[in-house]
Amino acid sequence: MSSSLLSLAIWVPILGAFVVFAAGNAQNLARWAALITAIAGFAVTVPLYLGFDVTQAGMQFVEQRAWIPRFNIEYFLGVDGISVLFILLNSFITILVVIAGWEVIKDKVAQYMGAFLIMSGVMNGIFSALDAVLFYVFFEASLIPMYIIIGVWGGPNRVYAAFKFFLYTLLGSLLMLIALIYLFLASGGSFNLLEWHQLRIEMTPQILLFLAFLVAFAVKVPMWPVHTWLPDAHVEAPTGGSVVLAAIMLKLGAYGFLRFSLPIAPDASQYLAPMMIALSLIAVIYIGFVALVQLDMKKLIAYSSISHMGFVTLGFFIFNQLGVEGALVQMISHGFVSGAMFLCVGVMYDRMHSRQIADYGGVANTMPKFAGFFMLFAMANAGLPATSGFVGEFMVILGAIKFNFWIGFAAATTLVLGAAYTLWMYKRVIFGPVANAHVAELTDINSREFLFLAVLAACVLAMGIYPFPFTEVMHASVDNLLKHVAVSKL
């Protein structure tokens, strides 16, 4: 049974999506079918965590079958301590997205729910693929449901935002495809990622490979300066689209660095680390200032995501255990916190149909329960100790100070900037007297909204107070990766 768990994690949501599509115009049936499928999709991923051997650095739950034998392409799946948590996070977030869209989406409900289920299965495929062609197929396939979600259920400029999202990410992927073909030839005709990790490649090709992967993954993270598609996509996407985009899709690029760039081009990774650190610090500091001047809540949280993901890439390229593990913890935490922040904005948007900070004020007077949840998530976004937002940032800052004091000092400015833009937004929206008649008519969260906010609040607090179950899983795999990068392949 354990050997087919990854296939189940991929195909249960995808096949379930077609059941949801079959519901057609029976909206309630589509909602319940989507919820049952999402819960089943999460249930099959839980044994991956429970049965995971934390002492092993290699791949577990491996499945390997011939797929296109002529080109030596395999259906090859496996997870290690770096990837297993993302499969759980992805499947968990899918359940919340289905619940969040339960009453809000009234048009094409079956298609909306089905698109998210397909997205969930495809994402699990990306995190578990060990064959490069299989990875590429899933990587590209993930664009389609998100493109449709933004383009069909998004805001007034949804077509522009969907095209920009699609073109940016597709262009980056084309360079990755060229790199994959080069590696196929260099390895004597194999697309096996684990074999590619053992290749000895000269420095110049390594640098070119690294740069090709960089373009593909930097767009997905997104890193400065290829970040401009993200605020547009977030603002126009429906709430569920924003949640999945922030909580899962941004992680694909960061994950790609750990699965491709660092192990395949270790010498180039070390050689180009100063450039990666500089780009990461620009994202952390400059984008933090950009977030400060936003008038739209979704745009502010989108820029905040870019700043937080700058922390992730910084952690990877300081090449120490604290930095890499801190970056991975930050990725998981960001999934909870940014997802929760976008859900909070969605709760207010459903009532007021505005995301402008200026249209709010005094929300605590009419929505006290909601204000309490929003406060917790705002504090986590600012990196308050005892929330998940603090753990990853603190580990990366410690790792950065071990690497170089001034880099650590520069990274730590995000704690000040993060608090500034998050709490300033919170103050203007939630505190003070009731700003207008629309705010006065607001009703507090209902039981459905309470459910998904309470679940995320529990996750944020649990990870902040006791992060060991997360760090324990990744420790052996991160240690193995760093030893691999430290040993020159030339």
How is the topology of this model organized?
Layout: H1 5-22, H2 27-43, H3 46-50, E1 60-68, E2 73-79, H4 84-100, H5 109-128, H6 132-141, H7 143-153, H8 158-186, H9 193-196, H10 203-220, H11 229-236, H12 239-264, H13 266-271, H14 273-292, H15 297-316, H16 321-352, H17 363-366, H18 368-381, H19 388-403, H20 405-430, H21 437-440, H22 447-465, H23 468-486
Antiparallel strand pairs: 1-2
Helix pairs in contact: 1-2, 1-5, 2-4, 2-5, 4-5, 4-12, 4-16, 5-6, 5-7, 5-12, 6-8, 7-8, 8-10, 8-11, 10-12, 11-15, 12-15, 12-16, 14-15, 14-20, 15-16, 15-19, 15-20, 16-18, 16-19, 16-22, 16-23, 18-20, 18-22, 19-20, 19-22
Quick take:
The chain is mostly helical and 490 residues long. Helices cover 74% and strands 3% of the residues. Helix 1 (5-22) packs antiparallel against helix 5, helix 4 (84-100) packs antiparallel against helix 5 (109-128) and helix 14 packs parallel to helix 20.
How would you describe the overall organization of this protein?
With 490 residues, the protein is mostly helical. Helix content is 74%, strand content 3%. The chain is built from 23 helices and 2 strands. The protein has a two-stranded antiparallel ribbon. A hairpin with a 4-residue loop joins strand 1 (60-68) and strand 2 (73-79). The mean pLDDT is 85.
Strand order of the largest sheet: 1-2
Helix share of residues? over 70%
| Sequence of secondary-structure elements | HHHEEHHHHHHHHHHHHHHHHHHHH
Rg over alpha carbons: 21 Å
Contiguous runs where pLDDT drops below 50 for at least 5 residues: none
The largest sheet is:
2 strands, antiparallel
Question: What class do helices, strands and sheet pairing give?
Answer: mainly alpha
Helix count from the secondary structure assignment? 23
The overall strand count is 2
* Termini separation: 41 Å
Bin the strand percentage: under 5%
Shape: globular
- Calculate the mean pLDDT score and round it: 85
